[in-house]
Hints:
The chain has about 300 residues and is mostly beta strands. About 10% of the residues lie in helices and about 40% in strands. It has 2 domains: about 10-115, Immunoglobulins (Immunoglobulin-like, Sandwich); about 125-290, Glucose Permease (Domain IIA) (Distorted Sandwich), CATH 2.70.70.10.
Amino acid sequence: MTGARIPRFVSFLVLAAICARPKGALTQSSGNEVTLTPAAVVAGSPELIRVDLPASETLDGEWLGRKLQFFRGRDADAWYALAGVDVQGAVGSSMLQISARTAGGTIVDRIRIIEVLPAHYRTSALTVAPKFVAPGPEEMTRIETEIELKKRIFASSAPAPLWSGNFVAPVHAAPTDSFGTRRTFNGKLASIHEGMDFHAATGTPVHAANGGIVVLARPLFYEGNCVVIDHGLGLFTVSMHLSRIDVHEGDHVTTGQLLGLSGATGRVTGPHLHWAVRWQNAYLDPAKMLRMDLSKVH
């Protein structure tokens, strides 16, 4: 949105009938039906959106140019969506739009202004093999093929949540605060670090952080041996640089199931696990995802 900055989490209500209203008036709510957790929204933050409209039959939404896919909570008294702000997303005021259809056919719209705050990430310098900074023709052909493969992989997701309860760390190893770091490789700014690194020695077991379907399990140029799990509704986790892969594409996995062993394949400076959380092409802070309490949601 343009113009003056809107105070954080100022919300207002729009009640409208998108189509001809059935008989009966809409009841204006207190405006507290929509909540986000964490309440402070920053670039790279995963968000749990809760909408308290239990009488509605369907619920749709949009935020930051992405469609929200809602599901019923365990108690059926609320709707939920897992969403987030990309680590490189724009900061400032954003509009969260929600539209519900009641059993009687009435359309109830909600609009809430969400202030996205800047996050402050570090800069680091790394040295890797020259081919990972200036790939040759053969490497470029492979890279372009893998870009198209990853586009296809992330373009579709299960239409319902495949996860259940809280997400858990994929390895028993110390994590770093590397998410969001601006990285230079061999003196050239190459990327924003879009995941969390764990200090995992080669051969450390790597587990599924939650339930889902393995949609990719193969070696890639930059990622090395890589496993991608679709958790449904556009949510994926990615495990990179493995020394061994123990699952196959199409496998259904459960929380804690062995995916493979950590290693140092792909573009790395040494053995570790790079673990990423991705929602609809937005990369989210894995550390915040692990701290999110989803035990009563699904």
